[in-house]
Design goal:
189 residues, mainly beta, Pectate Lyase C-like, ten-stranded parallel β-sheet, 0% helix, 23% strand
Length: 189
Amino acid sequence: MNDFIADQTFKGINYTQSPLPKGDYENCVFEGCDFSKGYLDNQNFMECEFLDCNLSNANIANTTFKEVVFSHCKMLGLKFEDCNDFLMKFSFQECILNFSSFYDLKLKNQKFADCTLEEVDFTQADLAHAQFTECDLKGAIFSATVLENADFRTARNVNIDPEKNRLKKARFSKEGAIGLLKKYDIVVE
């Protein structure tokens, strides 16, 4: 049985050698902690904040993220589809999420702000009404992705095939709309 831990702050702790104890963490703050290549599997995080943490390549299998905020975190190679998707809700602010995967997840109204999302896999995800504010999407994979009403107006390096994704009422800047034409190898001047 997991311990219940509430209203605590964990600051500057290296969890790469000894993992975070299994628990139900509620309203906790993790600041400057290193979870890289560590084990965060089978944890429950509810209304928690991760600030300036490194979670790169961490095992997050069966982990619950409910109302969790990630800010200024390095999160390379995370497989969010391995998480417990029941009540899954998180937001990302100024995070590096390169090479992570959100395959087949329901992420309506998802918020990414000032994030680097290079080579991120959004295949078959439902990102209706998602916001990609000032994000870099270089090499991000969108295939059979629901992007209806998504906001890409300030995103950079957007490359989405309109024939393979649902884009109804998605918003793009004039410059960003060029990424919808990339597969046709045409020149817009």
